[in-house]
Amino acid sequence: MDLRELATTTHLGVPLLLSPPAPADADAIYELVQDPSIPRWTTVPSPYPREFADDFVASTAATWEAATTAPPSAAVAGPELVWAMRVGGRFAGCAGLKRHGGGTLEIGWWLGVPYRGQGIVTAATALLVTTAFSPDYPLQATTVTWHAYLGNQPSARIAHRLGFRYTGLFTDPDAGPCWSAELHPGDPLTPSTPWTAPGEPLAA
């Protein structure tokens, strides 16, 4: 089945489409990533000039073009697969799966301020995890991991809500301490264990 266009709905019944970023999205990408929380918690650079958006779209397009001739598998490392999250035809943010090889994918996302608090990332993430494990799609992952910079509680709440199991801290050579969690095929996409012990993401 085609990975390029995936559809679902949010918990509020709002239709959500995931599809590759397009040249027409560049203005929205540039405008939305000016929000300082995006470069704070993601690898999006700051400052982010307008031409970066064009380069980003071109890079993701090249990855998707390659995927049409060689269907991407989680067994083989490769460039990140990136989808635009679209609500009512409007670009809202990006979600992606990094291909580390050996069956492991790493999920990540960023969402523009006007679209937050509507369940969009939760719905998109659930869809990508389901797709990653599905035998009907070429990825067929054995593990989906989640990483977040230490302190990124909004991201942690989404990962926990979707059943990711916290696996601890690790140190990223560029970003410093990060949280880590993972999912496996057959894991329910609902909270399985509390992340409330000292040092865990959602501890009081």
How would you briefly describe this protein structure?
The protein has 204 residues and is an alpha+beta fold. It has one domain (6-183): Gcn5-related N-acetyltransferase (GNAT) (Aminopeptidase, 3-Layer(aba) Sandwich). 27% of the residues lie in helices and 30% in strands.
Please describe what this structure looks like.
The protein is of the alpha+beta class and 204 residues long. It has a single domain (6-183), classed as Aminopeptidase (3-Layer(aba) Sandwich), CATH 3.40.630.30. The chain has five helices and eight strands; from the N terminus they run E-E-H-H-H-E-E-E-H-E-H-E-E. It has helices spanning 26-32, 37-41, 50-69, 120-133, 153-161, and strands at 6-9, 15-19, 78-87, 90-101, 104-111, 143-149, 165-172, 176-183. Strands 1-2-3-4-5-6-8-7 form an eight-stranded mixed β-sheet, with helices on both faces. Helix 4 (120-133) links the parallel strand 5 and strand 6. Helix 1 packs across helix 3.
Keywords:
204 residues; 5 helices; eight-stranded mixed sheet; Aminopeptidase; alpha+beta; 8 strands
Give the number of helices.
5
For the sheet with most strands, the description reads: 8 strands, mixed
- What does the radius of gyration come to? 16 Å
How many DSSP E strands? 8
| Low-confidence segments | none
β content, as a range?
Answer: 25-35%
CATH superfamily: Gcn5-related N-acetyltransferase (GNAT)
Shape by Cα distribution: globular
Helix content: 25-40%
Helix and strand sequence: EEHHHEEEHEHEE
CATH architecture: 3-Layer(aba) Sandwich
Largest beta sheet: strand ordering: 1-2-3-4-5-6-8-7
CATH hierarchy, class: Alpha Beta
